[in-house]
Amino acid sequence: MKWGCNNMLRWLTAIAVSGSMAACTGKPTADLEDYVKETKSQQRSAIEPLPEFEPYESFIYLAHEHRDPFTPPTFAHAPKSVAQAGGSGIKPDFERPREPLEEYPLDSLRMVGTLEQDQDSWALVLDTEDTIHRVQHGNYLGQNYGKIIRVSEFEVELMEIIPDGLGGWMERQASIAISE
Prior knowledge:
The chain is an alpha+beta fold and 180 residues long. The chain has a domain at 95-177: SH3 type barrels (Roll), CATH 2.30.30.830. It is 23% helix and 25% strand. It contains 3 helices and 7 strands. The protein has helices at 2-24, 30-41, 80-85, and strands spanning 110-117, 120-126, 132-135, 140-141, 146-151, 155-163, 169-177.
């Protein structure tokens, strides 16, 4: 009997293994083949055609028709400030001592108020380091040699002296309005 139980156990194991082998003998890639068929049967979307580009038109530079790009331009009618710049005209005073607010670009300064006493009026100007300076007519502001020509309740007007691009100088009006 002993031999019979072991024998029977062997037969049952052999049947179980052969049954599981029979289940594996089917196509293992059937689900993959079904997916490929389904994907191929779907309608494909149309691809837009490439855009049409205009052909590049080259430019041939003929020196005899144009000014040489490496020489400075000449102006037939020079502006008044440019004409004065070459001689003893407009130029900054390089000998005078520079004032504290000339260290800052004009657009970084803010007018925050005014003071008046008798006939004198001062503007209060805030710099980028949160220091308030009291300025009046004749003081200098900004990095372009800007001299204050008028202080009003709402703005500081000044005249700057800037390079004209031709080796000279020209004047330009500027202002700082009061900020809220």
